[in-house]
Amino acid sequence: MTDILTIEGVSKTYASGLTALHHVDLSIRRGEIFALLGPNGAGKTTLISLICGIVSPSSGSVRVDGHDIQRDWRAARALIGLVPQELTTDAFETVLATVTFSRGLFGKPPNPAYIEQVLRSLSLWEKRDSKIIALSGGMKRRLLVAKALSHEPQVLFLDEPTAGVDVTLRREMWDLVRSLRDRQVTVILTTHYIEEAQEMADRIGIINQGRLILVEDKQVLMHKLGRKQLTMELQQPLAAVPVLPCVAPGSLALTKDGLELVFTYEREAEGGGMAELLAGLGAASIAIRDLRTTQRSLEDIFVGLIEGSTAQDSNAPDAAKAPDLSGASSVSSAADASGVVP
Amino acid sequence: MNLYAVRAIYGFEMARTRRTLMQSVISPVVSTSLYFVVFGAAIGSRIPSVGGVSYGAFIVPGLIMLSLLNQSVSNASFGIYFPRFSGTIYELLSAPVSPVETVLGYVGASATKSIVLGLIILATAALFVPLQILHPLWMLLFLVLTSVTFSLVGFIIGLWANGFDQLQLVPLLVITPLTFLGGSFYAIDMLPPVWQKVALFNPVVYLVSGFRWSFYGQADVALGTSLGMTLLFLLAALALVVWIFRTGWRLKA
Fold first, then answer.
1. Complex ipTM > 0.85
2. Which residues of B touch A103 (CB under 8 A)?
3. How are beta strands A33-37 and A186-191 bridged, if at all?
4. Which residue in A159, A205, B98, B112 is a FRET match for A20, CA 20 to 30 A apart?
5. The CATH homologous superfamily of the domain defined by A3-79+154-222
6. What is the structure's pLDDT at A225?
């Protein structure tokens, strides 16, 4: 799969002195859904704004389908659609007029049939003559998507696309994003909802304090960092964690006043010695009433990485604060350094 | 050149005028008509003619210029300020639109509205006072140059302003006083000698003078000077707009 977006060594320091991005390297593959996760103020919106031309980079380069966003800005921007985080619309315009306006702004000749198709696909066609001020929040969100799609972009940025929308609409938005990918539109979304990234993304990037601390295929990430737990409900409470030779020290813990024994293991361990554990418990005459397994979610992984990255930044001397952590290789670097992954 | 973008911005702005017809066109026409009633009919009938032109007719170019300047500034400043205020400016900044194309769209629409308004006021004036236009092409030239120049000024104000109060500040405290003191209602030679000299520092004097010359063939300053100064203001405003876009001032972080 070829790259449609290449970001190399991009940094951004605002006039106030705040450095929002530190030497970010990132490549986005054509046709993928890429989720950029990060806490508030991590630099997600700055990165998107910079790629779209709203913010000027302090250093580094960005190419969209080979077009440099500064030297060949016209060709680069024509390929990009942006759905901003805020519901910013011209309240007194009609739906059809504002979407038609967006198409013209991006240098495309009028194409009423295409605009109709976009509006129908977003369930907005019936509202085409309505003023935007009369639309619901969900409709406004879809309208912003329609505006961004009006010029047939190859790359679509969705900045917090489902912020403040109800569950039904969020599902609709996810379906829409998937349908865009089916049409070979590359989608880059920022989100606070880990569930959203887990549900939709092909790859995930995690940004914190302006540094891209991880970029990884979602499945690989889940597999690499996905920790599982086996919780055993005991018939009789235990006073202390049993010492079993077949189990690594520290992987067992007691909870619920000794009534639950929790075994933590790595997914990669393929069972993690579960059979030996159960046999060992049987030999020690520890009776089990029930058991269940749980898997570490992307949210747990995200929180762990962010906490680790923040701790690393606050402890490390300045000179060591800008490691190149982008790319798949950064998974182990970031995780190892943070101590998040056991 | 992204002509589709120019057309989109221009069309968007003109549509806003249609939506706000009362505010954009009818209101200035009504207020100008009131000027004619007060200064032309009520007070003007007691004022002797100026250079052989009745006072009511004499003030027509000045009144048109007054509306032209205010409307050009307010149209263009609101046009670019509102997207900044509402946040929709993101779309303009992320679109493949050059500064020239942006200015063509916004300033073109603002100037168009002002010119149309000027012509409507001219037609309205014809209902109140006998009018003659000795040099109609010059009249149109000054109309266009003034509208474009002050639309550029309005565009700059729209970029500079950080609130609706600031948006009104320059028209209220600068444009209107300069217009009233720029010979809209009198000839400069009617002022005491010292104030005649001071008046020459007022850019509006040159605009009104040239514009009035196109009507009645009489002017406060030479036609060439009026035209030269008008073009100078135009270039100065253009240079400032170019600088703004080059530096991204108030537009880009």
1. no
2. 4, 8
3. parallel
4. B98
5. P-loop containing nucleotide triphosphate hydrolases (3.40.50.300)
6. 64
